[in-house]
Write a structure and sequence with these properties.
The complex is a heterodimer of chains A (205) and B (531). With 205 residues, chain A is mainly alpha-helical. In chain A, 44% of the residues lie in helices and 8% in strands. Chain A has one domain. Chain B has two domains: 257 residues, no CATH class; 154 residues, no CATH class. Chain B is elongated. Chain B is mainly alpha-helical. Helix content of chain B is 71%, strand content 2%. The longest helix of chain B has 53 residues. The chains are: A mainly alpha (205), B mainly alpha (531). Chains A and B meet through helix 1, strand 2, helix 4, helix 6 and helix 7 of A and strand 1, helix 5 and helix 14 of B.
Chain lengths: 205, 531
Amino acid sequence: MATQLKGASQLRTALRRFEPDLAKELQDEVAAVLKPIVKKARGFIPSDFTPSHWRGETKTGKWPIYNATLMRRGIGYKTTPSKPNRRGFSYAASIANKTASGAIFETAGRKNPGGMQKAPKGTPRTNKNFSHSNNPQAGAQFIRALENASPIAQGNIREGSGRRGRYMKGRLIYRAWAEDGGKTNAAVIKAIEGAAAKFRARVGQ
Amino acid sequence: MATTDLMIGIGAEYKGKPAFGKANKDILGLSAGVKSLAKAYVGLAGAQKLFRYSAASIQAFAQDDAAIQKLSRTLDNLGLSYEQTNVEEFIAGLERTYHVADDLLRPAFSKLVQVTQSYTKSKQLLTAALNASAGAGVDLSTTVSDLSQAYVGNLKGLKKYNLGLTNAELSAMSFEQILTKLNTTFSGQASLAADTYAGKLNALTIASGNAKEIIGKGLVDAIGTAFGGGDIEKATKNIEAMAGAVAEMVRGLGDVARLSGFNLISNVFGALQNKRNTLATKDRKYDPMSGNMPDMSSAALKIIQARKKADADAAKRQKELAALAVKQTKAVKEQTALAKAKSVLDKANAVFNLDLIQNTAALQGKLTEDETLRLKLQREILLGNADAAAKLSQELLSVQLAAVMAATVDPFGQWSKSAIEAMKALKELRSGLATLGTPSVTSPEQLLAQDYATALADAVDPQFSMLDGLAGYRDAFSRGPGTANSYQNITISIDPTAAQYGIGVASVNNSANGNSNNYSTIQSFKGGTGF
């Protein structure tokens, strides 16, 4: 769960409306904070990585080819507020991994670390809960190769008791986030707080 | 490029449906808050009963209320009524921070807002005034007056703050620059004063005063309710009937206060203080989890918009005032320059009124040259060209001086009394023009005449004593009887140009007197040799 703020998007709106220079300053500041973590995440993508079953693209294009350049390009940051998600949360800034191949590299094995179970006979090929490969170790071998390239890490770094879900686990942006140890998060919040304080001072609140 | 949900969100904010649940929670919290506040007021009512007839409390409340109303009306009249809450919060904050009573702060703010017509600017000036007042030892009211006057360009009052600036420097600075200087000089003085023993005593006095005001308000309300069903007019009629009971109450007051009064006051004051502390929460240090954001409700945004407009208007007015001041200074400078030019032209005109010019010109036979100069001068005067006229006047005067020098010197290098008088008059005229800034011109004619006169004086004065102000002058005819003749070798150096000119003038004069001149043309005179 990200640090919760109140009125951050309204603050952005007010900044754009009344103090455009502060709005620009805040965006620049947040960008400067996010850039290093994006760079770090991009650095986890190996250029010469060619595991079996990832050498070609499927005819339908649903299984994308491994293209390090494209994957690196797909990792980026956003300094403007996002649209609210299904749970009603909007984020002041975000880091995203947008390419399909990047997503595979990021998340493969986080649900089934040993690969998916081989599909029992008679299971339709459209059922995605099972592996349909003739090699029963196909999933495990693929995941092992990825783990050797970049180990998966838990991005949910909050302290205290409680279960950490798998949705913040990954090999690229989540790993970079985990290794950062929350410094970037604090810096972004601090930048927003700083802009709020400056805004208050300027408009006399 | 396909999109995925792989994203790390930073700074989450509720936007969707969960906001309803949160609002519900907030309303429940608010109800609880209202209940506790009501309890606090019940406590306050108890305290009001205890101090029911304290005239001082009622008076304090009345004065405080009058000050609030007055400031409120000022803000209304200036079109800043939307700032009333902020002004009250600001004043309460200053009172808490600097231990300066709101009785002083309200009139001060009122005075500033009348001049600046901006809440933001007035805040800035009042804070600066508090620092300057504490630093320079000047009372707050005077400092506020000085600053408000300075805002409109009257900088007289700022001298007492010893900013290390001259009058000229002060007048050359903009108000913003002066304010910066003031802030730099007295930065932190108000906080320092609040931390001193005297400042802490002030804090106690203020707390006691505030308690009086709060209790006074309660008293007024209680009296109104008890005796007039909320109608204060009705209540006043019934108060006399209470006179007997008052004496008993006052007697019992000491005991009651001793038993429970202090704790109660502390509780009541604490509850009200919490209510007023909303401002202080805005100044808390950074805490990533605090969710500390400015108020961004539509009402707040409207206020911000209006405030920005008022501030822009105030800044515009300030600029206009500054431009006006510059314009005035320029006008004064132009006026002075015109007066000076007129004075020069008047002096130059005076040259034509002197008979001396005609006399000297006639004596010297310089009519043509003088006339040319005079005609030129006259033309410049007619054109109103003061500088050229002044220069020509000086030139003309120099030529005339030369004419008098050369024409009236006798063979012993002396001038007649009338010539000296004429030269003195010409010199005075030149000095008069020079004091007005016109350049003093020494014409070649004047240099020549001076050399000629000096040469003649040297010729009759073997000791060259004429050069020393004519002291101890003796010539060959003034030797006493019986003095033995003695011979001395004398070396005289003569400026060839001056000698030529002098000889020329002397021969012209000689011819004019009917005498003949004898010339030797064997060798041309080169000057500078002994004989």
